[in-house]
Write the structure tokens for this entry.
Amino acid sequence: MANHIFQICYNLCRLNKSRQEEAAQAGIIPSLKRVIESSSPLKQFALPILCDLASAGKSCRILLWQHDGLSMYLRLLEDPYFQVSAIESILSWYVPSFVPLRCR
């Protein structure tokens, strides 16, 4: 059952930022975190969703802070397959915070 649910979430969220925000607000982050930390085969679906959340919007970034998202991204740097995604996620999460007001 979980396999089907994560595949559906992956397909719904992969390219749609509004759906990513809805999923984050509905509480998907703790579930993604649990799957990733358990080294489940579902990790292949959970990691891309987690990485996409960093650039989905401000509400997603706030929820990632609440769920210790930065440490999840830093742990991903150890996974050769997801290193680039982790770096891109960290950058897309932090860059909006550092853009000077006159440039916005």
Residues 18 and 56 are 7 Å apart (CA to CA). Residues 83-98 form the longest helix (16 residues). The two ends are 44 Å apart (CA to CA).
